[in-house]
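re: ur msg from earlier - yeah i can do the biotin complex, just paste it... oh wait u already did. ok heres what im feeding in:
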Amino acid sequence: MSDDALGSLSQRLRTRWLGRAHEHHGRIGSTNDCAAAWSDAPHGALVTADRQDAGRGRFGRVWHSPPGASLYASFVLRPPQADARWSALGLAVAVGLYEGLAGTIGGLGLRWPNDLLVGDRKLGGILCEGRWAGTTPQFVVGFGLNVRAQPWPPELAAIATSIEQATGERCDRVALLAAVLHALEPCLEAFARDGFAAIRDRYEAACVSLGTVVAVSVDGGRARRQVRAIGLDHDGALLVQGDAGRERVEAGELLPAG
Ligand code: BTN
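and the outut:
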C-alpha cells in the first residue's frame, strides 16, 4: 500500500456527489476504460489507479502512467440530457482542476483546450469521452496530474513537470484529489446548468494561450499552422488569426510556435 493510499479518499472527501462512489485499483489498463465499463455507475462515480498499463491521452497518445507517480482518475457524468454545449466539458473540467490547484502551485495556467501547465511544461491533461448508454448520454472524464518528482522518459524530459517538481514539497495525493474534486463539483454544476458561459470568465483568466502566437494542430501534431490565438467563441472554440484570416478551431491542440 502506498503512503497516501487513494482507497481512503472517502475520509477526506467534501463533495456531495462527485467521487462519492469510488473504486480504486492498484494496477489497471486505463481508468477511463474501467469507468466506461462500470455499467451501473452513478453520476459522479470515480475510478482511480496507482498505475495504468494502457493510459491514454488525446489523439490516441500514450499517457505515461508509472506506479504511484501521479493521479490517474476518471469520473462518470450522466446528465439527463446533453446538447452541443457539452463539447466544452473539457474546458469546464480544466477550470475546476485549475481552481483546485492554483492555491498551492505558483505559475499554473491552462493551455487551450484543457492542458494544465506550470510555465511552459505540462502538469496534467484531460480526456473526455462521450457515448450513449441506452437513451441517456454518458461522459467519462479522465484526468492525469503528475505528482511526484520523477525521472521522465526522454520524450517528456523537456516538456513535462510535476507538482513536487514545481513546489519542491511532498504532495499527499489523497488531499490533492479531495481538493480538486471539491473545486470541480460546483464548476460542473454551473456548466451543466448554463454551459460554457457559466465558466467563461474563469477560463479566460486562467488561459495562457490567448493573445499568443502558437502552432495549431487538429491531427495530433502531424500538420501545424502558425496562428495568433485571439479569443474564445461562445461555445469555447478557439478563435485564431492566421494567413487565411480569422478562423474557429473546435477540436485541436496548441504547440509551441516556431
Ligand atoms: C491528454 O492531455 O492527452 C489527456 C491525458 C489524460 C490522461 C488520463 S490519466 C487517467 C485517465 N485514464 C486514461 O487512460 N487517460 C486519462
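cool cool. Residues 110 and 208 are 6 Å apart (CA to CA). ping me if u need the other ligands too
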